[in-house]
Amino acid sequence: VPEELEIVGFDNIEQAGWGSYNLSTIYQNADAQATAAVELMVDRIKNPDRAPLRQRQMVTPVFRKTTRNTHEL
């Protein structure tokens, strides 16, 4: 089973890269997410009748030892 199982963390904390874990993760830019959330809230306050808005942000895979294919997710 270990050769058929892959594990990916979602927050890329420092401990994920420790040798005992070496966990593949997804890096999410928390500063950019917070900034976007505040900007959207301020815009909603100024324009309460504005239609809902969906905003996407890029995430970056950080490949370590818990995934086999290091070229794609």
Descriptive keywords:
73 residues; alpha+beta; 3-stranded mixed β-sheet; 3 strands; 23% helix; elongated
Descriptive report:
- With 73 residues, the protein is α+β, with helices and mostly antiparallel strands.
- The chain is built from 1 helix and 3 strands; from the N terminus they run E-E-H-E.
- Strands 1-2-3 form a 3-stranded mixed beta sheet, with no helix packed on it.
- It starts with 7 loop residues before the first strand and ends in an 11-residue tail after the last strand.
Order of helices and strands: EEHE
Task: Give the N-to-C terminal Cα separation.
Answer: 19 Å
Helicity, in percent?
10-25%
* Structural class determined from secondary elements: alpha+beta
Strand content: 5-15%
Mean pLDDT: 89
Tell how many strands the DSSP assignment holds: 3
- Shape call: elongated
The largest β sheet comes out as: 3 strands, mixed
Lateral strand order in the biggest sheet: 1-2-3
Low-confidence stretches: none
Q: Helical region count?
A: 1
The Rg value, from CA coordinates, equals 17 Å
Brief overview, please?
The protein has 73 residues and is α+β, with helices and mostly antiparallel strands. The protein contains one helix and three strands; from the N terminus they run ββαβ. Helix content is 23%, strand content 12%.
